[in-house]
Design brief:
Layout: H1 2-22, E1 50-59, H2 63-76, E2 80-87, E3 95-103, H3 107-116, E4 120-130, H4 132-158, H5 162-194, E5 195-203, H6 225-276
Helix pairs in contact: 1-4, 4-5
Length: 277
């Protein structure tokens, strides 16, 4: 009976030491292969995770028409529109930005169709990030955390006091929190690798300005003796025409009117001279 009592009491006495050795921080992927908590190797057929993105700047004839074409590219590729921003009044013809997500196996084909939606490609940037190694490392972390989680739950079931239960439960909550973060990161990488994004900026070229015609100034001619002679002859002819015109008017108008006056004046003058004589 005494031996059975000691055996029954042994797990309770030994549990704290064993517990902390189990729930100690799990070694990372670089742990020794023979260690008890070495990470589980990833499956040989692990799928590569390539995150692809592209950014384009297009010159288009009509912003609404180009937006409709790019939305059709997303729908026909099995993708979706992430966001759209438009401003039809800020610049001549308007401006817009659209971001679409398409399956990774449709990325190149969708990218070419987006290029064709504009008249000119003003700029383009594509990138591809290989997240395969990170994804495999996360898989190993999940395996380690899940193994530790299972062991902690076993010790939680063996806890004999409230204090032990609280301490073990706190460690269990911490492990579960880490597990949730790692799985969330894995889901994010899987979603980003499954769907690639294409961001497009649309611009309408400004209207061409029509140049206003201006008169070309005619350079002044240089001095010429012939031209000066012609100008002097023209001026003399004008003066002679004025004098001839004055003589004609004087002979036709002034002389006929002045002749009677002159006769009367000479008659009066003759009488005065005779009277004085």
């Amino acid at each position: 009976d005494a031996e059975r009592a000691r055996a029954a009491g042994a797990p309770a006495a030994a549990m704290p030491t064993a517990l902390w050795s189990v729930i100690a921080p799990t070694p990372g992927p670089d742990a020794a292969p023979g260690s008890a908590s070495a990470p589980v190797p990833p499956p040989a057929d692990a799928v590569r995770k390539i995150v692809k993105d592209a950014t384009l700047s297009l010159e288009v004839e009509s912003v609404p028409l180009a937006l409709g074409r790019i939305e059709a590219v997303a729908a026909q590729s099995g993708g979706y529109v992430v966001e759209t921003r438009t401003d039809l009044g800020r610049a001549p013809g308007g401006w817009a930005t659209i971001k679409i997500g398409v399956p990774v196996d449709q990325f190149e084909a969708a990218l070419q169709r987006v290029r064709d939606a504009g008249t000119t490609v003003l700029g383009e940037h594509t990138s591809g990030v290989d997240a395969s190694q990170e994804y495999v490392d996360l898989q190993s972390q999940v395996a380690n955390l899940e193994a530790t989680q299972a062991r902690i739950r076993e010790f939680l079931a063996q806890a004999t006091t409230v204090e032990e239960s609280l301490r073990v439960n706190a460690q269990l909550a911490e492990i579960e929190g880490q597990l949730g973060q790692v799985k969330g990161r894995m889901r994010f990488l899987a979603d980003r690798a499954a769907d690639s994004t294409i961001t497009v900026e649309l611009h309408v070229p400004p209207p061409a300005e029509t140049p206003t015609p201006t008169a070309t100034p005619t350079p002044a001619p240089g001095w010429s003796a012939v031209e000066e002679s012609r100008a002097a002859a023209g001026l003399l002819a004008s003066i002679l025409r004025v004098l001839a015109t004055f003589a004609i008017w004087f002979a036709v108008v002034v002389l006929p009117l002045a002749a009677p006056v002159a006769v009367v004046w000479w008659a009066v003058r003759g009488r005065r001279s005779a009277a004085h004589g």
